[in-house]
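Researcher: Going back to the complex we discussed earlier. I've cleaned up the inputs and rechecked each line, so this should be the final set. Can you rerun the prediction on the complete assembly and write out the structure?
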Amino acid sequence: RKEVEQDPGPFNVPEGATVAFNCTYSNSASQSFFWYRQDCRKEPKLLMSVYSSGNEDGRFTAQLNRASQYISLLIRDSKLSDSATYLCVPSHALNFGKGTSLLVTP
Amino acid sequence: DAGVIQSPRHEVTEMGQEVTLRCKPISGHNSLFWYRQTMMRGLELLIYFNNNVPIDDSGMPEDRFSAKMPNASFSTLKIQPSEPRDSAVYFCASSFAIPHTDTQYFGPGTRLTVL
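Model: Rerun complete. Updated structure for the full complex:
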């Protein structure tokens, strides 16, 4: 079973919209998580770390639901520059999977 | 800091040839990771080192792949002989601590095409 599962998308949203996507994980012992962002033809870069129930950084909010074993990423007031692939990974796991592709359109 | 450095950035080779990818981690980081990314399989871990010692190489596809880390500032990933199915982007990443606790910093990747 994969460590994490994400809807690959693509999620197509208009500029200014709010979009959320989930990442389900298999290991109930997972304590912390990372969200990485990967632009087209670039390397992944850390977007946010989540060590407790959630984290918020500007327009980005990550929430952890331990009972249902998923972590969500909410992007408010989406910008064209948010178009990227978003990868989640538990801190103990090292396979990132395919991530979720987001396309923000004018 | 220059970040993680990888070379070459692009490599085109013919099937059967040996390919060597190189990585210089961020100074002071003691964990180094090699990943392969394809559309079909996403970003997969091949191997990681901690303090220059290979810790987990279960992701290495087969004996054609080998990785070394002779010192804290250099690692290589070698494919011999290369096959068309090895075509992918290969990323090297480093982190300050063991993977469980710290952010990974990725290099720009090597885009490998095997004809």
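Model: Worth noting: The CA atoms of residues 38 and 51 of chain B lie 28 Å apart.
Researcher: Good, that matches what I expected from the previous run.
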